[in-house]
Amino acid sequence: xxxGKAQSNFITGVVLExxxxxxxxxxxxxxxxxxxxxxxxxxxxxxxxxxxxGQQQLIFSATNMITKYYPVFLETDSIxxxxxxxxxxxxxxxxxxxxxxxxxxxxxxxxxxxxxxxLQATRDVFLSRAAFDFSQVYFKVRGYDSNEGKVxxxxxxxxxxxxxxPQWNNWGGLNDATRSQELDYGLSGSENAFGGLxxxxxxxxxxxxxxxxxxxxxxxxxxxxxxxxxxxYHSGIRNKSLAYTLSISRRWAQEGYLDGTHYNxxxxxxxxxxxxxxxxxxxxxxxxxxxxxxxxxxxxDEVVTLLGPxxxxxxxxxxxxxxxxxxxxxxxxxxxMYYKYKSGDMQIRAALAHQSGEIASSxxxxxxxxxxxxxxYRYMPSYYINSPIGANFIGANQAKEALLExxxxxxxxxxxxxxxxxxxxxxxxxxxxxxxxERSLTGNVLMNLALGQKFKIDTGISFQRSERQxxxxxxxxxxxxxxxxSDPFSNTRNDVNGSLSKEQNEIFNYNxxxxxxxxxxxxxxxxxxxxxxxFVAGDYAARDFQRNGLFLNERYLQNSLGEGELKLFHxxxxxxxxxxxxxxxxxxKAHAFLGTxxxxxxxxxxxxRENNETVPNISNEKVNSVDLTYLLRMPKLTxxxxxxxxxxxxxxxxxFFYVDAGVGxxxxxxxATGLDRLHKGVEIGVVYDLSPTTKASFVTAxxxxxxxxxxNVTINFDSEGASEDLQRSEGTIDLGIxxxxxxxxxxxxxxxxxxxxxxxxxxxxxxxxxxxxxANNFIDIAMITRTSSFKIDPNTxxxxxxxSEERIRAMLEQKSLPxxxxxxxxxxxSWLYNDHYISVFCSINNVLDTNYKTGGFEQSRNGNYGQMxxxxxxxxxxxxxxxxxxxxxxxxxxxxxxx
Length: 899
Known about the structure:
Distance between the termini: 37 Å
Number of helices: 8
Structural class: mainly beta
Radius of gyration: 29 Å
Shape: globular
């Protein structure tokens, strides 16, 4: 028996796989109420030292295995337990199902983007339900954007500089290679990073930590893709030094659930680890993921009434083939090197990664030509019904019949228009890509040091240099020969120093780079004393941004070409937490966060496509947050109840749209500054074991997520236009305060409730179902209509006399989406045949085929009271809110073989 300090006990044992009696390596063994943990060796053996006494609970966990809880009673003597038998988790395919859901985030409007991918590593019933069930309606945990969760791969931070979000499609399809994940939720401490308000997810893709074997799977679905094949091989550690992994996948669909949404993706991952002197590991890895898919559109109620919720105007027929006008293509390979050192109580990890590639989003541009979108407001029946000279019912009926007969993208018409002699050298229509080509170099160093059993230090530093080039690139001139690179409204050139005529695959319209540099460091101290666990962490960061215009824009001759002002931000944050263990069954936790952070890149530059101008006097955002948690673990009952309060201050938001405002009409950039947001609510998750094979669960979230200030709004515009109503030489108008305080934030449902049942049969099949209710989902508001300019008659410059506060308040009442009821079923079965596992997994979402809205936004076109009244007289406004719709009944079926 090992010896140690007099007050220490040693727990020893062995862990075996239940069905084939094989020893299990790299199983994490830890005491539930402390930070003490160890791992099993190649024989499945473990030794865990602890100073705890009395009734305790051991936790045995590993990727792809069902977590095992084992009670022990510790006295003065060391004990030996075992063997401990663990079973493969038949529900691991749920993460594949989740990836299919998160890939549906590729909408035009990124407010629908979720944080589901961050939560797939959790064993918490509330977070699991949020990821796998609530995400169908784009529920966001605590109302936070996904940029509040930090993602690391082999220690490399993966959140992007533009919007702070992780780009999950950079490693999409590599499910087997990314299963080893560690989630530190919320404001809790982490040994991997300082983390965000949603915490951090650390993905370990190193081969030396993967269980050896070959796994092949094939799936079919009617969601974003129809078919998928995937194969992954982990060599395991050979000759105690070398390990490698190879994973490939292919996903495709001629059309997904929504009309006209094709899907084409492949992924490749390879990595090799070399361990030397038993304590050092050096590795290299490559992630190469390609993804291309057709996009869908938000729809008004008028369009849905005529054409249904699955309608998508962005595709049409050309020569008998389906062709989409809106395609999003992503290809940004990642190369990384990493190093690990572990000796006794010290661990050091270092990594360096290079990423380059592009994200391209296609669309059709039109120049001195009609808008080709079949749902353009002038082609809709409501345009004739809401005419200011009186309703034209004949015209409305003709528009309806024309739309029903020609509801898809008119590709042949575009070619016909460009074939005219007058348009050969000046194409009326062009299919082009908005391209973001980013190159980045990122590094990270982490150290974890245990100073005895009661004190640990975690520290790290990371840096990144990135250059993001953004431009428009002609993809297809649609039968034309050349395109005039000028603005048809102001008759000004986009590229004064370049050629006026542009051909296919040439850059036009705009071209600029934004260089970003940042470094960040954190230090965390963790204390463990009797029933108390306490941590304190601090973070300091510096970040700078600079735009470099590559085109001289004739509308902005003074500040479009060359380098703009360097914007530098310094930030610091502090967070802490304590955990008190009343007994082994009752825990209490509290966390607090206070800090500042730089504004997001997308909120810094007002109109980066055309000039270097940044938001005037922009400064750091401020964030304050606290949460309280109660944990209960009984023999048959486990529960967590949490409350949270978070306030974001001094944030900035930039929007782009065409508006008919009280001060005139134009395409504008709306800048809202001094914007505060408040998030508060409760989360509850309960699981009860009805029997050894059956569990019941209850989950609920009740939140209040709202704007907490009245921001100042300015609009910026091109002052060169000869025919536009907005004419100010400075190109900006300060509209003053927007009265939006207490309006709800459009961040998914703010109320969610779920009841679930799960049955696991001893013969290795299982089935589970959840009934879900989601409500209080509000659409995004148009801030400009909440400013004083909304009351002004653009014809007189005076307030509309009938625009009373009561009428305006009723007109601008924020719309809430109908409540949603969803029933989901999942199940699976596994077989052991000649030491090979064969598993089948199936999920059916929205079993009752419910039609529901997931989100929406007010259009900003009606920017004055008179126009909004006129547009709503018929009850079918031309510029009513636009909505996204969820999927109806869908399935996902996967068959996997593990060798």
